[in-house]
Amino acid sequence: MKLEKIIDLHCHILPGIDDGSPDLEHSITLANAALKDGVTHILATPHHFDNNYVNHRQDVITLTEKFQRELEIRGIDLKIFPGQEVHITGELDRHYDDLLGIDARKKYMLLEFPHSNVPAYAKRMIFELQKLGTTPVIVHPERNREIQKDPNILYDFIQKGVLSQLTATSYIGGFGEEVAELSRKLVKHRLVQVVASDAHALKGRNFVLSEALNKIAQDLGAEHAYEFEKNAEKLLNGKNVIAHGYSSVQKKKRFFFF
Ligand code: FE
Q: What is the Cβ-side half-sphere exposure of residue 240, based on CA atoms within 13 angstroms?
């Protein structure tokens, strides 16, 4: 399938501010790789409130503008928007003004859980964010150990109006067969609404967004993949995206860790 434009809503492309691109040259390499993969728009999403990584709203905006200028100087035709991958804490509502959404009005926001678990306060915090007018988009649920054990934890969140983003690498097996299998299930059960690269540095985690979308098109039909990309555009523009047709997943008895 050929996608006219690919929008990547999760990418650690900004230089030197988290565990993503270490410096400007690497960010340029990432930008070229994205372009080669068919990506036209990137939401730059450095970690925020994730242990050592704190990237304040205004700093991200300033750095994004600076990086955009660098791309223009080099003739790289890629549009970058400022965003954050917001790590869940029990106090996000108190820091609301320091958070960046996917869209400019913060109708949607990328929300990350720890890899090991879904915190007990997650439900409450999601509700607080919803009250403030923001719909959280849970990032890479397929990589969360608790959701791996019981995917219907995600189903419960989706039922409460939350959305979810799958990582492209997961779908094509980059994190192992178990994660790939869960990814296929989440897509099939419509428990994820968008796919993104979550590219950090090129080593190990390449731009495989078009590959993942193509595989989804092969597995479930082109329309399914088109819908993901349409959703990415809608989320970036703050237009309504509503989870639909989703269903619960049968619990798997055993999950092999690696
Ligand atoms: Fe990320």
A: 3
